[in-house]
Amino acid sequence: MATRPVALIAGALVAGLTLGPVAAVAWRAGVLTGLEPADWAALRFTLVQALLSAALSVAFAIPVARALARRAFPGRGVLIALLGAPFILPVIVAILGLLAVFGRAGVLNRVLEAFGLPEVSIYGLHGVVLAHVFFNLPLATRLILQGWLAIPGERFRLAATLAFTSRDVFRVLERPMLASILPGAFAVIFVICLSSFAVALTLGGGPRATTLELAIYQAVRFDFDLAHAASLALVQLGLALVAGLVALRLSGAGLGAEGMDRVVPRWDAGGTGLRLLDTLWLALVALFLLTPLGLVAARGALGVFSLPGPVWTAAAHSLAVALGSTALCIFWAIPLATRRGELLGLAGIALSPLVLGTGLFLILRAFVNPFSLALPVTGVVNALLSLPFVLRILRPEAEALQQDFSRLGGALGLSPYAWLRWVYLPRMRRPLGFSAGLCAALSMGDLGVIALFADPDRATLPLQIYRLMGAYRMDQASAAAVLLLALSLGLFWIFDRGGRANAGS
Amino acid sequence: MKKALTFAAGMMIASTAGAQTPVLTVYAPDYFTSEWGPGPSIEAGFEALCGCDLQYKPGDLLPRIMLEGDKTRADVVIGLNTDVTAKARESGLFGPHGQDLSPLTLPIEWADETFLPFNYSQTAFVYDKTRVDTAPDSFEALLAAPDDLKIVIQDPRSSISGLALVLWVKAIYGDKAESVWEQLAPKILTVTKGWSESYGLFTDGEADMVLSYTTSPAYHIIAEGDDTKVAAIFPEGHYFMVELVGKIAATDQPELADQFMEYVLSEEFQRMIPTGNWSLPAALPRSEWPEGFDTLPLPQKTLFFDEAEAATVQKEAVEEWRRALSR
C-alpha cells in the first residue's frame, strides 16, 4: 500500500535533512581535513564502547523480553511502561542517577562497605558500557518483546499439541524471530552509542574515554574548525552506514506470520526452573533500571510543586513540540518502513547533533531568520532523530502484514486508503502505539540541536534543567527532571496503552 | 464610521510608533539570558534608559558570529571569553568599545580596545568543610594530598573552566606541567563535559572537591544560608577568568550600542553582577560589593595568559593534560 512516490518523498526528506547539513558545513569549510592522531584514538574508543554497549544491551534484553512475553503478573504493564524511562532522561540527570547507585558515594558501595568489602569504581570502559546498557537495554527489550508478541499464538498452540519442549519452541519459533529482529536492534543501539559524549567522558573517567563526538564539539565550539568537524561527522556517518548494511544483510527476510494476533498462554514454559529463571531476570533488570530512576525521582519529587513559572511554561512548550514531532514522525515513518527506509533512517541519529544544528543554521539562514524557528526546528529534528527507532518497531510487522494480506488486498482490489483504514491501522495498532509513545517521550527529552537556535522566550524543559544547573540550582533542576520524567512517561503510557488496548497486556 | 476611522488612524500611529522603537540585538550565552541569569535585570535597566527594545539571542557565541560573518544580526555580543577573542578579533567584525578603562577594578591590567570586561572570577577548587577535614592550602599541598581525596574537573576541550585549569597549571608549573598532571591523575575522580555536571557530582557527595570558581561559595552563603562550601585559596595564585562584551563594527544601531557599552561599566549594571551572575563586578570597588561577597576569601595573586600568550601555550598544555591523564 505504501505507494512509491510517497515513500520517495519521505526518503528524500530524510536524506536532505541529514546530508544537507553535512554538505552545508563542508561547503562552508571549503575543504575536508584528514584525521589527527588523537582522532584515531577517539575513533578506536568510540567503536569499542559502541560495539560492547550494543552487544550487551541486546544480549541481556533477550531473556528479559522472553520473560515478559511468557509471564503474566501484576505490574507487568507498569514495568513495560517504565522500561521507556531511562532512554528519555536528560543525560546529565541520568548520570547523576547512575552515580547515586554505582558511584563512589552510591548505594552499591555503601552496601559493600557494610559487609566489609572493598569499594568498586564505576569509572572506566565498564562504566561507559554500564551506562549505555542502562539507556539501551530497555529499548532493546521492547524491540525484542515486540517480536515475541508478533509470533501468532496459534503456533505456540500447535507446538503444544506436538508436545514441543521449551528447547524445540526456541529452535522452531523463537530463533527465527530473533534472527530477524536482533541485527536491527543491535544496529540502532550501536549507532546511537557512536555519538555518545557526555556519558562516555564522565563515566569513562577522563580523556581515555574520548569519543568522536567530543572532537566534533571541540572543533565547532572552541576552534571553529568546520573542515575538521565535517570530516569527523562523515566518519561517524560512514560507521553507521556500515552497521546498517551489515544488519540488513544479517536480518534476512521477515517472518511471514499469518495468525490471529492474540497472545495466548504458553504450554512449554510451565516448569518451576523456567519460572524461576524468568523471575530472576525480571527482578534483576527491574532492580538495575528502577533503582537509579527511583533515586532521581525521590530526590526531586517534593520540589515539583514549588517549581517556578518559567519551568511550567517550558513544560508546555516541550509538550507541544513532542506532540508535533510524534505526528510528523509517524506520518514520515509509515511509507519508510522498508529495508531501504530503515537504513536511511539510521542516518538521522548517526549525524552529530552539533553538525546537524550548524548545517541547518547555515541553510535556514539563507531564507529566514533562524531564531524565529527555534521550536519548529526542534520538532522536526526530534522527529528525524526518533525515526530510526520507530522504523525498527514498525518494519518487521509492516512487512509481515504486507506478506500476509497483500494477496487478499489485491484480490479485493483495495484502494490505498481502504488498505490503510481496514487492514493496516487495525493490525498495526500495537506497534504504532508503541512508536508514537517512544517518539513522544524522546521528543520531550534531550535531543535538541538548539544551541544555535535558542529563543529566549521559548525554552524547552530539558533546556531549563540545564539552565537551572548552570545557575547552581541543583535542587530545582532535580525537581524539573522529575517533572520531565513524569510528563514523558505519561505521554509514552497514553500512546502505548492506546496501541496495546486489545493486545491482552 | 467616524469611530472606525479614528480607530484605524490610532492603529496606524501606534504601529508606526512600534516600528520606530529601535531594537538593540544582543547575542549572549544561554545561561546569561535565562530567568536565573543576569540578563533580564540588565535588559530592564537598560531599556529604562534608552527608550529602546533590547532583545537577546541566546546561544553559542563564536560559532554563530563566525557563521554569520558580516551579515550578523547582532549589534552587541556579551559573554565572550578570552579563549575565543583571538578568533573573534581576527574576524574583523568587532569595532572599538570606545570606553574609558580607568573605572576597572580588575586584579590585572586591562588595555584591550575591542573587548570590554564586565565581570570576572578565578578558578578554584571548592570543597565542603564538613566532608574534608584537612583541605590543601596550596597547589603543592594538593599535589601531596592522599589519593583518596577525589576531585572532579572539566575537560579543557569542551569547557572554558576546564581550559582555564590547564592554563592555571601551566602558569604555575611551566615545563613541569605534565608531571604535575601525572601526580594529580590518581586524585581525579573523573572529567566532565561542562561545569554543571562537575558541580552536580560535587553537591551529590560523589567528589570531595570540584574545579569551580572563587565566587562559588557566595551562592551558597547568600541564596542558601549555607557557609560549608569553601574555595581553597592557594598562594601560588589563581587563574583569571573574565567575561567580555564587544560591539559589532557594522551595527546599524551605533548610538544604542555605544550607550550599552557605557551602561556595562555603570554602577547600576555592576551592582547587578554579584548576585545576578555569581561573579565579581569588573568596575566596582570591593567596599561596594554586597554582603557575602565582601568577606569572601580571594587570592592575593592572579595568574593570566593574555590572548597571544594563551595561543602559544594552549595546544601544548591541553595535549600534556591529555597524555598524562590517558596513561
UniProtKB/TrEMBL annotation, chain A:
Nucleus among keywords: no
GO biological process: transmembrane transport
Domain ABC transmembrane type-1: 43-247, 315-495
Membrane topology: Multi-pass membrane protein
CDD domains tied to this protein: TM_PBP2 (cd06261)
Compartmental location: Cell membrane
Principal location class: membrane
Keyword Ribonucleoprotein: no
Chain segments annotated as transmembrane: 40-65, 77-102, 122-145, 181-206, 226-248, 280-302, 314-336, 343-367, 373-393, 434-454, 475-495
Keywords: Cell membrane, Membrane, Transmembrane, Transmembrane helix, Transport
GO cellular component: plasma membrane
PANTHER family: MOLYBDENUM TRANSPORT SYSTEM PERMEASE PROTEIN MODB, THIAMINE TRANSPORT SYSTEM PERMEASE PROTEIN THIP
Protein name, per record: Thiamine transport system permease protein
Taxonomic lineage of the native organism: Bacteria, Pseudomonadati, Pseudomonadota, Alphaproteobacteria, Rhodobacterales
TrEMBL record, chain B:
Domain of life: Bacteria
Repeat in keyword set: no
Record key words, sorted: Periplasm, Signal, Transport
Signal sequence extent: 1-19
Subcellular location per the Swiss-Prot or TrEMBL entry: Periplasm
A GO cellular-component term linked to this record: outer membrane-bounded periplasmic space
Molecular function as annotated in GO: thiamine binding; thiamine pyrophosphate binding
Chief location category: periplasm
UniProt-listed Gene3D superfamilies: Periplasmic binding protein-like II
GO terms classed as biological process: thiamine transport
Alphabetized Pfam families for the sequence: SBP_bac_11
InterPro entries: ThiB (IPR005967), ThiB-like (IPR005948)
Keyword Zinc: no
Family note: Belongs to the bacterial solute-binding protein 1 family.
Designated name of the protein: Thiamine transport system substrate-binding protein
